[in-house]
Amino acid sequence: MILYFSGTGNSRYIAEVINSVIEDKLVSINECLKNNLIVSLEQQYIIVCPTYAWRIPRVVEQFIRTNHFVSGTKIYFIMTCGGDIGNAAKYINRLCNEKNMILMGVGEIVMPENFITMFKAPENPEVIISHGVETELLLAAEIKAGKYFL
Question: Mapping DSSP to helix (H, G, I), strand (E, B) and coil, where does residue 87 land?
Fold first, then answer.
């Protein structure tokens, strides 16, 4: 199952790219939160979300904390960002340990910067997006093969 949280569409787009390779169920965390929906139990999850202050968004962390995941569930995180995800893997690893989930990987996909209160909008977003998709297709193949990556 691919769970995604997106405010501007970058993470939703990346989730769709992953799904073009994996062909799994796409679920919007935004919709789950709005409608108080609980996710069904699966063997493996992929979480796609933006980077907020070099971490996963607090609402995504809370969503994971409040949903029941079977002990030993495999989980991948794919994070969109304007530059890098910082030390997000450290916090994700801690969360996975608390939930008894197996962290299979944390991937970083650079997308056009959209925090324009602090950064300038990119001049060539198409180039950034095409590089991001190339990276994402490689990560999706790794996920489909069940490989670890960090």
Answer: coil
- pLDDT tens digits, one per residue of 80-95: 988 899 999 999 999 9
pLDDT digits (tens, 9 = 90+) for 108-148: 998 766 554 555 555 665 655 666 667 878 888 999 999 99
> What is each CA distance from 104 to 45, 86, 87, 147, 149, in whole angstroms?
10, 18, 16, 7, 6
36: left (phi over 0), alpha (psi -120 to 50) or beta: left
* pTM, to two decimals: 0.87
| Residues 88/106, Cβ–Cβ less than 8 Å | yes
DSSP letters of 33-77?
HHHTPPPPP-SEEEEEEE-BTTB--HHHHHHHHHS---TT-EEEE
